Amino acid sequence: MTEEYDIIMENVTYKYPNSERPAIQDICLRVKKGEFVLITGPAGAGKTTLCRCLNGLVPRFYGGEFEGDVIVKGYNTKREEQSFLASMVGLLFQDPASQLLCATVKEELAFGPENLGIPPEKILQDLEKVLKDVRLEGYEERSPHTLSGGEQQACALASIMMMHPSIYVLDEPTSNLDPLGSYRVFQLIKDLIRREKRTIIIVEHKLDELVNLADRMLVMSEGQIILEGKPREIIKSNVDLLEELGLKVPQVSLLINKLKNNGLISDSPIPTTLDECYKLLSRVLKQKIVRKEVKKPMRHVEGSSGAENNKTPIIEARDVHFVYPEGNVVALRGVSLKIYEKDFLAILGQNGSGKTTLVKHFTGLLRPTRGKIFIEGEDAENFTISQLATKVGYVFQNPDFQLVCRSVKEELEFGPKNLGLSEDEIEKRVMNVAKDLNILHLLQKNPRDLSKGEKQRVAVASVLTMNPKVLIIDEPTTGQDFGTAIKMMELYKRLNEEGITIIIITHDMQLAAEYAKRVVIMRNGTILCEGPPKEVFVQRQLLESTFLKPPQITLLSQLLSDYGIPPDVLSVDEMVDILTQLIRRGS
Amino acid sequence: MSFDYIPRDTLVHRLDPRVKLLIVLTLMLYFISVDDSFTLTLLTIAYIILIAVSKVPFRRVLSIAKAIIPAVLIYIPLNMLFIAANPHQLQLFGHELILIGHIPLLGIPVYFQGVIYTFNCSLRMFIILLLFRWLTMVTPINRLVVSLTKMKAPPSLSVATSIAFSYLPVVLREAKTMQEAYALRAFKTEYRNPFKKIKILSKMMFPMFMNSFKRGYDIAIALEARAFNYDPKHRTSIVEIKYTKVDWVFTIILLILMVIAILIGRWGLNYANIELTMKILEALKQYIHQFT
What we know:
Strand order of the largest sheet of chain A: 6-7-8-3-9-10
Distance between the termini of chain B: 53 Å
Shape of chain A: globular
Number of helices of chain A: 23
Radius of gyration of chain B: 24 Å
Number of domains of chain B: 2
Number of domains of chain A: 3
CATH topology of the largest domain in chain A: Rossmann fold
Oligomer: heterodimer
Strand order of the largest sheet of chain B: 1-2
Helix content of chain B: over 70%
Number of strands of chain A: 20
Helix content of chain A: 25-40%
CATH class of the largest domain in chain A: Alpha Beta
Strand content of chain B: under 5%
Largest sheet of chain B: 2 strands, antiparallel
Largest interface: A-B, 67 and 52 residues
Structural class of chain B: mainly alpha
Distance between the termini of chain A: 58 Å
Number of strands of chain B: 2
CATH architecture of the largest domain in chain A: 3-Layer(aba) Sandwich
């Protein structure tokens, strides 16, 4: 029986040391040889813990209370050495940078097989082949830490492939990557599936990429497997539940599910891909609409993007050039941009396109090599960083770098204290912000003990106590699960309504489409285009040239333009409204 | 970053890392055994020639100097106060003490020999640090580590060294991000006053340590996941290091030079002594006298 299954988990329950509730509970799982299993679920569901059970890291490395049995290729992980398990189970982590250990790519790849005692000649032979497989030829002598995120993850995957494990466990391999990096890593994973026919377990939030490839999908929540089956079947029959869990359900599935709930479509199965959805909708629309209406569809007039009024912009970049002194890297090549009060701006683009460099100019952390920055109409040169900090707040991508105090309260007081405000004023601000962001109950806690979502909230709060007029948020969604990302975006939306200008840097086109009033697309240190999302997201070719993909729903609206649907639909709800009107009118 | 290897095609680069380590040790021995400014200056010139032969830009070598200078600046007054002011210590130089004057207020005597002595010590400290700087610039760290392993160092030690070096740029980058985070919350991080600087550093230390611990943890997991302890005795390595003929020639020459250095240090040999500097200075004085 053990021959047939590569992995058997029997009633596995595990509790981390110093933790109150088990991270995983009563997990029973059997994975056949050569099977491809997709695991998904919200943050804290126990996905990573499950992965780490498979190569013995749990409980061997972490300690804690472990019950049940994990049997990998017939070996019980309780009885085997961790390093022996590691030779059978290759584990790829979420953060590419923290798993790269060596000075060069070549050594990185050789590190695993060296540990296994494989002769150098054999390693070097293998190395050439694997480098080719992951498309990193010519990178042998580069330091892994100088590579881009996608390349780093490719290198990490290669270093595991070098050990020829029988089982691959990939733990959110694309969560920390930009779209280009994700695309690259997904390609490699698809190659891997095709080429090696190994057992593969992958934890991933981007369901639409893998739905058609995985043999089985598991949905985890609060330490348990709550759904199990063929991915398409699961999505088809559980859209509401998945959405409730905060998972990123393909937009087309969401759309049809909503139409079904509203009684507009009956009896058709819920599609999981764009293509299926297009076919389904065009069938429905053909039936309902007697003659194709080519009339201009109704447009939602969005709130003013702020660009048209004649006020002084709150931030203005005038032909800004910037060269990093180390290595003479040109990061900005003549960027001009006006940002008005109460704007909600999303800056999009691949890593290395200059997004962060640009916004760092708004905070005074960087000063332009050429060109000028104006804050509220005044040259930024005239302000120190501290002075600018009271006008422009900046929330870092990784809150661990930003949270420096021993309690959340001190954290919120830190900025205003440095500004030399009176104690009454500080107390007032801290209380207001804490109440506003719903973190009153966390005030006495140590920021390091908080969950990732809470940390980010505290990081935002610690900036807000400085009373900035502009809030810049660097990649608020990277490495977050979709549910948390949505909550954060809702928060920014509310702050924006309260009068704060919001600038976000993001890769997530779907969230940018739904929340931003204006988007800026950057490439190679220049602004490629800017405007309201409705104008920018219809320019498919332009977006493709930067590897950005419009949201699925926008793509669908473009496919359906023959039926009188505008090509610039940005959200599922908008599409539901349009289709509802069309279908009702038709019948 | 300050520990980067600069690839060049020179004899120095082709040498076995162990020979280069020997070069460093030999020069270090000379710097330690020699106590005379004139010879130290000659040795410094030898070091400069070494850098020139390695085709490594001086600017890059000296980029680390900024970090050393504060240490030297603290060292000099301490030396002047506690060692160079002690006639017994200075009499070892075997020359009549020349009093220049006294430090105002404290009344501590300043001898000419003391000044020379302090200068020598600072130069010595400075160059010895720069010697290691040179080593890391002409030898990839991994080759150095592998050669250490060949010399029977345990693999965990060599891997730890190698990881530490490969993560250094990452840690520096993180420290910079942290500094930016402080600055953005109106916290002044750049002070000229060294005491304030220390106070701020200590405030930044804690979160930085916490982040390093977390990183250390991640690295440990990554090591485990790559079967690091699979069979340490039979671990193989793709980096091949061979001792060539040239390496052997250099080794022999360096060993002879080392013996000489030890002899100089052990018996003084009167050559490597402040006496020589004094003689040269006196000769110079007389030479100048002839014209005046």
